[in-house]
Amino acid sequence: MGKQTRPHNSTFEIIKTLSGRLDRCLTTPHIVKFALNELRKALNVDCWVQITDGKQKGATLIVCDGLNKDVVDELADFGTDNGITVRSIPPAKPIAIQNLLTRKKHRSIILADSEYISFLRIPIRLGRKTIGTLRLASNKSKFTAQELEALDIFAHYLAAVLDKAIIRQRCRESEQTLAIINRLTSIMTSSLNLNEVYECFAEELRKAMDVDWASVVTIEGNKLRFYALSSRIASAWKAGDILPLAGTATEYIAKTRKPLIEPDLAVQRRFWTDKYHLERGIRSIVYLPLLSKGEVSGALIVASRRPNAYGKKELALLRRIVRHIALPIQNARLFEETERERQLLTSVVRVIKSITADVDFNNVFRAFAEELQKLVHFDLASITIAEGDRARFLAISPDAITELHTGRTYPLKNSATGWVLNKKRRPLSRPTLPSMVCRLSTTSNSKQVSGRPYMCPSLAKARSLVA
């Protein structure tokens, strides 16, 4: 009778020991490791535990006591991913294999060398909830009925302990995630100049995941601009750089409105920018859309030199982060636009003041050109006035390298000035100097400025175009 009750007594002793030793601060792996160590000593078996994920779509090996990885792989009935993750849910009923070597599917040199004879798998369940499986291998011919009953009791107790531990662990992870998000949000809202704080943002993000390169890009028409950038590598771009939007991952997520992970650029590249990332050592990269008023206004991009650096955990965290930083980024952009408009207005006021500061036209134009140069870069500025069928240079910027002279006239026909006057106030603006439109192309000056942007606005007086 004493021998029959020994498994029960051993199990109850283990449960008693666990009750006295388990602490709320212990993590799930610590609890399982301690429990399996006691179980192994009591029953002289080797064992391991696999825990299902939150949605019970798979299970992960967390502790293995007494078995090597090769044996675990051999005894994982449902297939493994490198002996670590089981792809299917463990069954609700215990499974016992009393003689492994008599089963053709389990014959192998590894099992023969291990000298294991019997194998047992017991579900770790709490009510209808499957938490994982307890698996044991023994060099005995079989597990007795008393041992099976005792181990089932142990599995039920372990389920209750693990369920609480898993809940505590998830709560701690949620608290840590919330703390990270709060710190990152505080950094992003600490200044309206995003470039001043983005490096701090990236450093804080590196505490949660691999970040060798990170950027906030904004969509501006058919272009994308690197609004802020932090890099530990030699980046192909810098903050302020503008690229074509077409063919980029940012364009893709703007259409799909969903995050995108490229796990390994050395294996597959989908966008033309990937080439430049890979050349600088980037292997994995994740893109997340930034939403503003329901529209995708840009993207948060995070990259690592390590392949497969971003999985479900990192993506879940980044999703929450972008929801909190999208508004601060939009506010920073609005502040930048407002500041740019303010500076533009200030410059315009200075230009107007320069025009009214002197009665001498040459002095006025010289001051005007100096102020205009602060506002818009140019190599040549001039004012021409229409006189019949000809145009005369009324003023030319003093630093312009040109053979043109103040007072010189030229035919209006086929000239830029004539084109503007005929179009009734529409300014002529070309990305390059139009040789067929502007007769100035025959001068040495046009050769010096050819291929550069060209603009010819009109001057009006009393609703009539005069220059």
Plain-language structure description:
Strands 3-4-2-1-7-6-5 form a 7-stranded antiparallel beta sheet. The longest helix is centred in the middle third of the chain and has 45 residues, at 145-189. It is rod-shaped and about 115 Å long. The N and C termini lie far apart (117 Å). Helices cover 41% and strands 23% of the residues. A hairpin with a 3-residue loop joins strand 3 (80-81) and strand 4. With 467 residues, the chain is α+β, with helices and mostly antiparallel strands. It folds into 3 domains: 2-172, Beta-Lactamase; 190-339, Beta-Lactamase (2-Layer Sandwich), CATH 3.30.450; 361-465, GAF domain (Beta-Lactamase, 2-Layer Sandwich).
State the total count of DSSP E strands: 20
Number of domains: 3
Q: For the record, what is the CATH homologous superfamily label of the largest domain?
A: GAF domain
- Distance from first to last alpha carbon: 117 Å
Query: What is the second-level CATH architecture of the largest domain?
Result: 2-Layer Sandwich
Neighbour order of strands in the largest sheet:
3-4-2-1-7-6-5
Going by helix content, strand content and strand pairing, the class is alpha+beta
What Rg is obtained from the alpha carbons, in whole angstroms?
37 Å
CATH class of the largest domain: Alpha Beta
Overall shape: it is rod-shaped
The fold-level CATH name of the largest domain is Beta-Lactamase
Portion in strands: 15-25%
Average pLDDT, rounded to a whole number, is 73
Low-confidence stretches: 1-5, 77-90, 431-454, 460-467
Number of helices: 12
Largest sheet: 7 strands, antiparallel
Report helical residue fraction. Answer: 40-55%
